[in-house]
Amino acid sequence: MDKTRRYDRQLRLWKAHGQARLEAAHICLLNGTATGSETLKNLVLPGIGAFTIVDHRLVAETDTGCNFFVTKSDIGQPRGKAIVEHLKGLNEEVSGRWVNQNPETILDKDSSFSVSDYSLIIATQCSSEMLIRLAANCQEVGVPLVVCETAGFIGYLRIQIQEHTIIESYSGPNEDLRLDRPFPTLTEFVQKFDLNDPDSMAHGQIPYIVILLQYYQAWQRNNPEAPSMTLKEKKVIREAITRAMRHPDEENFEEAAKNVLWALNTTQIPPPVREILENPRCDQLTENSPDFWVLARAMRDFVQQEGDGMLPLSGHVSDMKTDTANFVAIQSL
């Protein structure tokens, strides 16, 4: 089956970049318990690249009552080997292998096991002493460690990770119009339109961005000291725009009225983004710094030196009710 069809729903969530990261991952499970097997199943189904199970035990009858990835015919066989075969049957794109070794001894000097060979370590039913050693090894090489256990309806999950950064660009639900801080070319463009134009055809082709900005500028002239528009004032403007419609089919005025509440917000850097830009990691760049912090530093420099305290403007504008000439002009601003 084509990967696009197989992974259609998850690709909508994390896109091709996220799927590529997943397919490059090699996961190691210590002990093929029911909890560990189920956890690994949820990584095999979306398409990790490979997995390894380290387990020295044989399948017991008690395993068949709680682990869906062993059967009665597997009793007496290596547990890790049986689980690998059943998990591989869920997704032929994923490779799996079994290491016949006691997880408690994998960190001994004579062991060939190395945590740096894996993208993630999942540990179940390991002793406290072994987990302490394992955590130290994972921390040293920067490999995430997940420790999980269950007992009936009770379970716990512990995660150790140095830092996890994600760079993924996507468009939000609304355009970044910044009508409270319009750039000069947008202001010049908006001034070319007359909301009282007697030509009904031209009136029905005025872009909703123009309508909103002209109403916002009128509000600013009447409220020069107000820092921002209140919700009540936005509703008043929405009602005024609705009344300005000359007939029910003027979709451009409908668009303007529909977008009043978000489009006339005060432009600011979101607090989570500002927290990243102010992080000391932006000042401590080295040749080994992750791309995330290099980009964060570049973003901060732009905000401080060129952006007038604001983030870069994407320039993306969705389709709207207007003629082709107006839409192309807006896109080229």
Structure write-up:
With 333 residues, the protein is α/β, with parallel strands linked by helices. It has three domains: 3-160, NAD(P)-binding Rossmann-like Domain (Rossmann fold); 184-267 and 310-331, no CATH class; 271-305, no CATH class. It is 42% helix and 10% strand. The protein contains 14 helices and six strands. It has helices spanning 3-6, 8-23, 34-44, 61-64, 79-88, 128-141, 184-190, 200-203, 208-222, 231-243, 251-263, 271-277, 291-305, 324-331, and strands at 26-30, 50-54, 95-99, 120-123, 145-151, 154-160. The protein has a six-stranded mixed beta sheet with strand order 3-2-1-4-5-6, sandwiched between helices. Helix 3 (34-44) links the parallel strand 1 and strand 2 (50-54). The chain is elongated, with a radius of gyration of 29 Å. The mean pLDDT is 91.
What is the compact description of this entry?
It comes from Dimargaris cristalligena. Helix content is 42%, strand content 10%.
Question: Can you name the CATH architecture of the largest domain?
Answer: 3-Layer(aba) Sandwich
Contiguous low-pLDDT stretches (5 residues minimum) are: none
Strand order of the largest sheet: 3-2-1-4-5-6
CATH topology of the largest domain: Rossmann fold
> Pairing-aware structural class of the strands and helices?
alpha/beta
Give the N-to-C terminal Cα separation: 45 Å
- Major beta sheet summary: 6 strands, mixed
Fourth CATH level, the homologous superfamily of the largest domain: NAD(P)-binding Rossmann-like Domain
What is the alpha-carbon Rg in Å? 29 Å
Q: Kindly report the average pLDDT value.
A: 91
